[in-house]
């Protein structure tokens, strides 16, 4: 493969993907779940296992026209999401549901206030930001043995740049699919985002570590040559590792319950994009960064 030879193409192509991803997120606007907006979640189970549309028709009058989201969570099980309900309102809603569906059982009932939702949103951003900062510091320390001509901080900063690319593109795809599948951005999606960070940076570190080894062993080569060789040496390993994980996740997506589908879908998207970025984004960016720094001197 000649990834580094065509590094400018891959950098420009990836930048275009990021811009398209940002536009998609702005225009489509993924729907935030009650973890972030606040609201009430009720899970019910019925013996007759009616369709979602039938459940909606039977209980839509219980909330006096308020927005209602229903998601199937298993055979005859449904998760109902709505605005935050006071205790009295919830009691009326529960009575109306039991009247509409005589064989219903209330499995759980959770309420999250708007203040709590705002706090969770802030913590989500802080968590992702802190993870990114720690990754930069760790990589700068781990790659301190590289020659001074290549800054160890560059490895950390470029790895995070690739991670930003992964998250933006993953959320863009999730937004599009979620609009049609009814997926929301919930707490588990933040967990998926952090998992993507870990998996993607792991793939990137494998490539960067081989770059470091080749720089030390073959100082007579240019960074571009060492990086090209490193990408080809680690390509099969990265692809095989990611493919193994993706096969497991696809099985979970197809055979698992509907409640885990958004989480699994986000992971699949992120791992696919992360595998791409570790080879076609991070490595070309490293060489471009080095060349830019040399031109400045």
Write the CATH architecture name of the largest domain.
Up-down Bundle
Mean pLDDT: 85
The rough form would be described as elongated
Helix content: 55-70%
| Structural class based on helices, strands and sheet pairing | alpha+beta
Low-pLDDT windows of residues: none
Would you list the SSEs in sequence order as H and E? HHEHEEHEHHHHHH
**CATH superfamily of the largest domain, please?**
Multidrug efflux transporter AcrB transmembrane domain
The main sheet orders its strands as 2-3-1-4
List the domain count as a whole number. Answer: 2
Q: Work out the number of β strands.
A: 4
Could you give a short account of the major beta sheet? 4 strands, antiparallel
Count, helices: 10
Over all CA atoms, what is the radius of gyration? Answer: 24 Å
**CATH level-3 fold name of the largest domain:** Multidrug efflux transporter AcrB transmembrane fold
CATH top level label of the largest domain: Mainly Alpha
The end-to-end distance, rounded to whole angstroms, is 31 Å
Proportion of beta-strand residues: 5-15%
What does this molecule look like?
- By secondary structure, the chain is α+β, with helices and mostly antiparallel strands.
- The protein has two domains: 7-30 and 116-296, Up-down Bundle (Multidrug efflux transporter AcrB transmembrane fold), CATH 1.20.1640; 39-112, Alpha-Beta Plaits, CATH 3.30.70.
- The chain has ten helices and four strands; from the N terminus they run H-H-E-H-E-E-H-E-H-H-H-H-H-H.
- It has helices at residues 7-28, 34-37, 52-59, 87-100, 114-142, 152-181, 187-217, 223-255, 261-280, 282-296; strands spanning 39-45, 69-74, 77-82, 105-112.
- It has a four-stranded antiparallel β-sheet.
- It is elongated.
- It starts with 6 loop residues before the first helix and ends with a helix.
- The mean pLDDT is 85.
């Amino acid at each position: 493969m000649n990834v580094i030879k065509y590094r400018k193409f891959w950098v420009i192509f990836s930048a275009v993907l990021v811009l398209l991803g940002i536009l998609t997120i702005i225009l489509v606007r993924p729907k935030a779940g009650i973890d972030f907006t606040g609201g009430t979640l009720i899970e019910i189970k019925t013996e007759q296992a009616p369709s979602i549309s039938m459940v909606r028709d039977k209980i839509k009058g219980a909330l006096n026209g308020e927005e209602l989201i229903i998601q199937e969570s298993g055979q005859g099980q449904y998760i109902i999401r709505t605005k935050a309900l006071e205790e009295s309102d919830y009691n009326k809603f529960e009575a109306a549901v039991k009247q509409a569906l005589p064989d219903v059982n209330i499995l759980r009932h959770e309420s999250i206030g708007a203040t709590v939702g705002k706090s969770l949103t802030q913590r989500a951003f802080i968590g992702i930001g802190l993870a990114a900062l720690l990754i930069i510091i760790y990589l700068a320390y781990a790659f301190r043995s590289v020659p001074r001509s290549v800054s160890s901080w560059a490895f950390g900063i470029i790895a995070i740049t690739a991670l930003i690319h992964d998250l933006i593109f993953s959320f863009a795809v999730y937004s599009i699919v979620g609009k049609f599948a009814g997926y929301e951005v919930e707490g588990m999606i933040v967990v998926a985002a952090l998992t993507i960070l870990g998996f993607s940076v792991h793939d990137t570190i494998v490539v960067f570590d081989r770059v470091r080894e080749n720089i030390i062993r073959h100082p007579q080569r240019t960074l571009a040559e060492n990086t090209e060789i490193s990408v080809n040496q680690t390509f099969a390993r990265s692809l095989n590792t990611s493919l193994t994980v993706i096969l497991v996740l696809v099985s979970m997506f197809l055979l698992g319950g509907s409640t885990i589908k958004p989480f699994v879908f986000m992971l699949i998207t992120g791992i696919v994009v992360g595998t791409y970025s570790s080879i076609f984004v991070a490595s070309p960016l490293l060489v471009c960064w080095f060349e830019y720094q040399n031109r400045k001197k």
